[in-house]
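Case study.
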Amino acid sequence: MTNAIPAGPAGAAAIEVVHLVKQYKTTRAVDDVSFAIARGSITGLLGGNGAGKTTTIAMIMGLVLPTSGTVTVLGHPMPAGSAEVLGRMNFESPYVDMPMRLTVRQNLTVFGRLYAVEHLKDRIAQLADDLDLNEFLDRPNGKLSAGQKTRVALAKALINQPELLLLDEPTASLDPDTADWVRAHLEAYRRARGATILLASHNMLEVERLCDRVIILKRGRIEEDDSPEAIMTRYSRDTLEQVFLDVARRRGQGNPQTSPDGSSPDTKGRPHQTASRETMP
Amino acid sequence: MSELAVHHGISPRRVGAMILRYWYVLRSSWPRLLELMYWPVLQVVTWGFLQTYIAQNANFFARAGGTLIGAVILWDILFRGQLGFSISFLEEMWARNLGNLMMSPLKPIEFLIALMVMSLIRLVIGVVPMVGLALVLFHFNIFNVGLPLIAFFCNLIFTSWAVGIFVSGLVLRNGLGAEGIVWTLMFALMPLACVYYPVRVLPLWLQHISWALPPTYVFEGMRALLIDGTFRTDLMLTALTVNAALLVASFAAFLALLRSAKRHGSLLGGGE
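After joint prediction, the assembly is written out as follows.
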């Protein structure tokens, strides 16, 4: 559970987002979103297409500037403090590719140098072993299968052993076996490094398995923010997928247990948007 | 990609990483290498024969031997320098790799320095065969120009980088829909920079615009050298000053366009 996970030694959240808004002309992609993510936790960002997941992650990464609100990553305001934190974080997203003509080894060499990775050859060899890349390490990225490309993208995301990992659909287009294998690797990485992971996914089983905490977005706003178990209990559902469908199909109604001010309480009876922030010491 | 952050210093290692990335692409693709040489060679052969024909039939051009071939070679330095810069940038757009770079510790200034180095490398690959052909076929040795060639080259390459930085910013902001500008913008300068004719040919009002472009000083300087045997230091120093202003302005424009791209979410797409 997120609530049980202590913050890192610095006592600050890995990510803190306050009243974040992104307005594109007539569309409000993200609408007054606030949350804080404890160091060492895995948090899932859920929501239908256009719910604001990717835009939220992009604002955390500094790829998109917020219309209003603030983002703090590893104790530094974004994007002003990006020089301080970009080397300590990494990401994987279906919106970007690795250069197709470069071999896997060349790609990892280039990114390893960009991230100033020490003993780069050893690190690439280690990643190749861990992620089973050896068979196609010297093959151009463009000639790999979708599953192989995903593993290479994950290797790039882990090349600098990041403290913070942002993943957008990390197992999309993978067969169940490979997807399961990737999840196991992410869990192992989090355990070994105490890293913080924020992942956006449409795979509810993945989120149930990996995440200490789930934030469900709908039309740019936070609908739910709690542990998977607490949310399922609140909706009297057995799976997150059922909860997701309930949230998606709810039209203009309040949450299942609505407090007088219209916000849904978490399991401790606090309004959901502030509850997560209060978990941070 | 942290926006300015110059106070953290420029990392030669990150610049080197980007040069390595483009070198890997270049050496993995023989059509790319061939294309670098193809157009310059075609240009010099066409214009070289034209110059030979004119020289046989007109006293002035006989006296001004080499101005056309010289102009072609210098124009190609300007044009290929910008293309070399911009194509390396476009490689990132085509590969949908820009997001990876933007999220890395690479700074815009390091990215741009790597693109400048790549423009030099691509230029050498393209222009060396061209210069060799001019020597073999038309007995025109551009190196006979001597030290002034360095001043010509530096001014042209600085202009090409300034234009390259600006158009890269436009593509960053507007996506690959703006790719056409990369290939065509420099041609808009061609008539105004007076590549093949002196500035005095232009109407007076156009001459003012022409003198605002650094390449104009270079081409006038080349003609002064080849026709009158005079090296115009004043022209080169003025060109250098205008180039410095252009480079600062283009870098500022690049940062502004990058910021605008982040405001509009353009970096998430990169397509049309």
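Observations recorded in class. The domain at 2-96+162-278 of chain A is CATH 3.40.50.300 (Rossmann fold). The longest helix of chain A spans residues 176-193. We will return to this complex in the next lecture.
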